[in-house]
Amino acid sequence: MDNLLVKANGIELYYSKSGSGHPLILLHGNSQSSTIFKKAIDDLSRQYTVYAVDSRCHGQSTDTAELSYQLMADDVIAFILTLTLDKPYLYGFSDGAVVGLLVASQQPQLLGKLVLSGATTALAGMKKGWQWMFKLSYFFRRDKRFQLVLTQPAIIKEELARITVHTLLLFGEKDITTSEDSRLMSNSIPGSVLKTLPG
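Request: output the structure for the sequence above.
Response:
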């Protein structure tokens, strides 16, 4: 595994690269880093060239004063273009899934496939218990990453309808996302597949 830095969208993005085959980008969730994918990388790198990226303000990437899902989506777009990745597959978890939605909506021809876990289109798409957890966390810590979750995203069905890449939506039975929001995504993204995982 190679650990690397690339300048993209005016910041430095840290990422690891391993394996060979079609490029696959992994995007982590809020307050995490690409290290959450260590076991997955061991398996996926047998078939893909895996790029596990630290989002801005996370892990070893640049910590900026401003943080938004749009900035993170712009970072990923710049990452793909800078490394000249050809139709990479993208897997996003939680915040990484939100970023994946924005990238696929705004650059419909950029990705080869899209797989998302725990995506939400808005705060209202998050179950109430999780909303309270983030509100309490922000109250005590004033972390801009928690504030991000409480003020964004605001993805509407017209944006989802612009996603043309093959999309798999994964949600757990006990996931952060409401069933209404998962159905909104499934019904709005043309040809998408929705799977709910038990347990």
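The chain has a mean pLDDT of 96.
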